Amino acid sequence: MDRWRAVPNDPLRGVALFAGLDLRSRRRLAASAESRVYREAQVLFREGDPGDVLFVLRHGAVAVYRSGPAGDRAVLTLVRAPNVLGEISLLDGAPRSASVEAIAPTEALVLPRTAFLDLVHTDRRLMDEVFRAMGAMARRLTEQKADHIFLDLPGRVAKTLVRLLASVEDEHDPVGLSQGRVAELVGGSRQSVNQVIRTFAHRGWLRTEGRSIVLTDLAALRRRAGLPEHPES
Ligand SMILES: Nc1ncnc2c1ncn2[C@@H]1O[C@@H]2COP(=O)(O)O[C@H]2[C@H]1O
């Protein structure tokens, strides 16, 4: 069962989608929201469900995945707080495009579609941010498609690790990216992905701590992923 919590003063602060909104609009939108708490491995929603709310992740992280006919699954991405989730159904009115499961204890604010869309229609700044977010997602999907064609497995593993872990400042990140999860994300067999991770560890590019991976040479991983050594270059 979800536990429900009171919404604090300015809970949408720090979420990129709402960065352009003033405090009053953020608070007004948040007033229509409810807070839900999920334990690790709990499903927030499934592919095909009606999409009538927007999720704003405040703490924790989730995996976005599609299930195959044999019950296997492909993880499309991991999303960490603070971030939004479920915006595709909200914008096109169609059912959920993918399933979402908590991969750590997670807290989300749930905003009704009507309250969100009313504000999108009246506030240019929010509309601009929605366009920006959709553009960023389209770019990411294009890049992932190109990576599947042009990068070898170690390159894809390196890029996935850089994309998901480079911005994590806390060495003891509670989300933890296990080797199995990396395999689900890059679309390789678990065995071959584990071999790549062992090689990277041997070279001193990362270390494994329990179930988690800690990056120790970001520049080397960026090079292996075909990225410039430093993000700003
Ligand atoms: N390829 C993807 N990359 C990042 N996020 C995604 C991807 N596919 C689906 N999502 C997210 O997962 C959500 C599933 O429900 P929605 O389709 O409403 O909105 C979707 C997005 O928020």
UniProtKB/TrEMBL annotation:
**Is the keyword Transcription assigned to this protein?**
yes
Q: Which is one Gene Ontology cellular component term of this protein?
A: cytosol
Q: Look up the domain of life of the source.
A: Bacteria
| Gene from which the chain derives | fnr
Task: Check the record and name the SMART domains matching this protein.
Answer: cNMP
Which PROSITE patterns has this protein been placed in?
Answer: CNMP_BINDING_2 (PS00889), CNMP_BINDING_3 (PS50042), HTH_CRP_2 (PS51063)
Domain HTH crp-type: residue ranges: 151-219
Question: Does the entry feature the keyword Transcription, yes or no?
Answer: yes
Name the chain's protein: Crp/Fnr family transcriptional regulator
* This protein's UniProt keywords: DNA-binding, Transcription, Transcription regulation
Matches recorded under Gene3D superfamilies: Jelly Rolls, Winged helix-like DNA-binding domain superfamily/Winged helix DNA-binding domain
- Domain (Cyclic nucleotide-binding) spans 17-120
User: What's a Gene Ontology MF term here?
Assistant: DNA binding
